[in-house]
Amino acid sequence: MTENTPNQINRRVVVAARPSPAVTEACFRLEEAAVPEPGDGEVLLRNHYLSIDPAMRGWIAEGPNYSPPVPIGDVMRSFAVGEVVRSRNANYREGDFLMGRFGWQDWAVANEDAVDRKVDPAEAPLSANLHLLGMTGLTAYLGLLDVGMPKEGETVVVSTAAGAVGALVGQIAKIKGCRAVGLTGSDEKVADCLESFGYDSAINYKTADDLSVALAEACPDGVDVYYDMTGGPISDAVMDLINVGARIVVVGTMAVPSSPTPMGPRYNRQILVKRAKMQGFLVLDHFDRLDDAARELARWYREGRVTFREDISQGLDTAPSQLFKLLDGRNRGKALVRLISA
Amino acid sequence: MTENTPNQINRRVVVAARPSPAVTEACFRLEEAAVPEPGDGEVLLRNHYLSIDPAMRGWIAEGPNYSPPVPIGDVMRSFAVGEVVRSRNANYREGDFLMGRFGWQDWAVANEDAVDRKVDPAEAPLSANLHLLGMTGLTAYLGLLDVGMPKEGETVVVSTAAGAVGALVGQIAKIKGCRAVGLTGSDEKVADCLESFGYDSAINYKTADDLSVALAEACPDGVDVYYDMTGGPISDAVMDLINVGARIVVVGTMAVPSSPTPMGPRYNRQILVKRAKMQGFLVLDHFDRLDDAARELARWYREGRVTFREDISQGLDTAPSQLFKLLDGRNRGKALVRLISA
Is the ipTM reported for this complex over the cut 0.85? Predict the structure, then answer.
């Protein structure tokens, strides 16, 4: 068990600079520090997997966001799955696996607040706790079901559809008896949507001759639910097809730079005429529902009704490049970093 | 009771042309026809008051809207209060007053479907059934309470605030213990908001040096509910001030021409970061709740907790000019036409 014995060195990736505006190598720095000692109520964890998420661009940027930016010099904020190596908290024992905000580092000291969920390794692979049974799963599950409220026979459009969240949204839409239509940025991802994620139809929005026409063909009965992680011109095409009572779940704004605010067609008339609801969904507000969501998602996984794809790199030093790849849309599946050799 | 005896002539205003894009004299024509006979299940009504509403611009225009346009040559669609003169419907007797869609005409034949509510003349003045106890009241009441869901101590912004709906929204917001902030287009209307409609603060958006600054001063705790009948640049200023969990009720789009779709800043990031909800509200969907709403509004009226202002012209032939005045924002109070001499 040498893996679980702290050596003297904790390698960690800290935030070195703000994006300007691109997220580049200059934003991060690899450091070494002593392995920390857990204080009263804390645990020492050995991180096994790190999660790489689109929200990280926001976490290191200044400007309006839903959580304060990671201070320069601090360890990069990140969800991770770690094994408890030493515990000074009565709720956790050595050998327990936890999912929480443990940062881009080999070793982490965490208090109760940083722990999101105790992981059951029998439920699914450890890494799945960073997507299917973690924030990804909760984002897809609650965003679609609570805000989108899909009903059997309705049409659900997802943008983008082949990412970790989008892949799951499509599969949950199918479980709920909906027609699932995916928008994504490459032919390879279109194939993933159709072959792996259960979408009825998928469109490459980068190469479609006329996105509006392609969407209208894919949605002969209009759009009832739009799970929107992009905004921008893709969303403009979807908004023209919404049905009366449509629900637009605003989960991300990848295609809407934070500054300067880009211009686009005003949606007021569609929203009024169609009595549509456009609502922001932020998973951070709903951590208290993670256990319930994870239980149902794990059941669907064991029943073979949801599948996932992972894009894993090996070693802490690969975390920044995994993030660049994700932000460029070059990943295929949920981006993760493995810290413990498989 | 000569008033209630049909003569041979029914004067009516029909739609003569579509707006191009302004609504002008050319859109309407005064005609004469025989007073119609009620068929089985129908009543013959003598209209007393006609309602003049902003939605009428949409009712006579082509293009996406929530109800089909009034066909060229048909009587202009309009809410009205009329007295039953002859009844072939067991639910209504001669002398009953009804509110419904009876059109811009002296006499109307109506079936059950065209009747929205049986009027109790003791509850409030007859004309109030076309605003406080009619669509105006229902629009203000349900739009604010069901979609806006104001809580005590929250800030409610209304645009525009001095019209028939806006005046009522401000007063209901105050009844619910909110801070009410009104946006309106003249100093005279600002005075109405502050002196008659209970607003805590009111801003003339046409003359404000910097609307964003004026709004921020009027809303020191941000904006929790935005009752939006305009859209456009006014709304852009409000959107910059919304709080987490804000509700934006899209009730009208006076400042957003239907074609071509105007451009504006994209709201996606505010909606996401603030987990805001932007939802279209169309009163036509909620006629079944009119009785309940009217009952509570009538009670507030009798208790002196809500007041209203009327802008009444005399005679059927004044209906088009009342509409032009309303669309130009030159009315002061709910626009009505009286057909029976007072």
Answer: no
